[in-house]
Known about the structure:
The chain is 36% helix and 16% strand. The protein has a domain at 34-76.
Amino acid sequence: ECRISVSFSKSLFVQRKVGFLSHDVSAAGIAPDAKKAAAVTELSFPASKNGVQSFLGALNYYSRFIQDFAVYRAAL
């Protein structure tokens, strides 16, 4: 009824780690993609109000992996 097709050439099976939405998903859990996390750590500190908002928006995507993120966000 739904006419769903699967492309086996594009499918991955029996993988220990899979990249999904800039995260690495494995049996150990979810972790940020190392390349994307490195790009976030290299961001320069903003000088304007709009820059701070953009900076926080970029960091918010990985906030679950940043210890005490809410404390740092409140300080900004």
